[in-house]
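call fold target=Ammonium transporter
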Amino acid sequence: MVETVIGAPNAGDTAWLLTSAALVLLMTPGLAFFYGGMVRGKNVLNMIMMSISAMGVVTVLWVLYGFSVAFGTDKGGLLGDPGQFFGLRTLIAGFGDESAGVPLIGTIPATVFVAFQAMFAIITVALISGAVADRLKFSAWLVFAAIWATVVYFPVAHWVWGGGWIMEKVEAIDFAGGTAVHINSGAAALALAIVVGKRAGWPKTPFRPHNLPFVMLGAALLWFGWFGFNAGSAAAADGVAGATFVTTLVATAAAMIGWLVVEKIRDGKPTSLGAASGIVAGLVAITPSCSSVNVLGALAIGVIAGVVCALAVSLKFKFGYDDSLDVVGIHMVGGILGTVLIGLFAAPEAPAGAEGLFYGGDLELLGRQTLGAVAVLVYSFVIALVIAYAIKFTIGLRADAEAESNGMDDSEHAETAYDFAALGGTARSAVKEA
């Protein structure tokens, strides 16, 4: 659990965390562009709406009870006390008498910590949507997002960061979300994609990105915002924030290069989509490990993530699950790599002070990292399956065939992203052809 004290906040730390929170929130619109550019033109608004809607749904749940479940007083290692901070009671206080101070978590106002962690919850839910592009009903998405956040993300955040069993018993290292964010969302994405089923025509029909500049813009916004994600997790404007900023930069650059090399060798051409995907793979992999590795370790993790994730995205064709935008291959696989490789590359001079196998450590750290990764993967996958089947047999998960053919923008939102009427056709006919 987090402990609050009444006092005066550190101005520098508070300013950095407020900035970091805003940077992390920007990642969700960045994700919307990243995903939106990869779908066909008739589905781009629906894809963007899935990310943006997470900002609404998760924020409301977070301030009501989500923060309390994640960071309230521990209940058996599984969740925090749901009522302790219900509606953020006791956290917005002290402003009538500024000399008495305000509730602090560490050196920052408790409300700033609440806001920062809210952004993690939002983007974790939004990440899942990429696996079910082009076919999931928007109403079903909203219900899934609300239930999954409640019964999976909030408790898992407690396990990893809020004093739960992974933090206290397993003692696995996850500085900024390899397990709680990326493995968690990737496993849920796999489960949801399996239950929803394949897109009509997949895998024979090519589903090409309709707007690669959107994809590149989204990747750039994600990279920019990710510095708040990782360096902000230091919760202070200090040397830890500086170190994690640098390892995040280095690993991401290395992963992009690794992905492009795979494309050049395998396909003959490096692509912009590959560069964008490599950027995200590197960001994912360095997220849990950014405080545990030195620059050489960050380079190694980045290259490994770029290469492995570039190969992993093709697993969906081998195993027959339609992960539309490669959430599993990038986020689940990248999260596993970043979490487990701490057991190899953790350097004692890094802020976490851990020793991986390559720096004189033993197998214990590797085992702890693996246990944490597997536990979150299994829990998220199983519960997401249950939620998805429950929705499927009640309100229904998937849009009907006609809606899927016409496009989710028109069928779910009565809108189109592009007005082609000025070009001599109708918007509806142009969308049908996209």
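return ok
DSSP finds 17 helices and five strands in the chain. The two ends are 50 Å apart (CA to CA).
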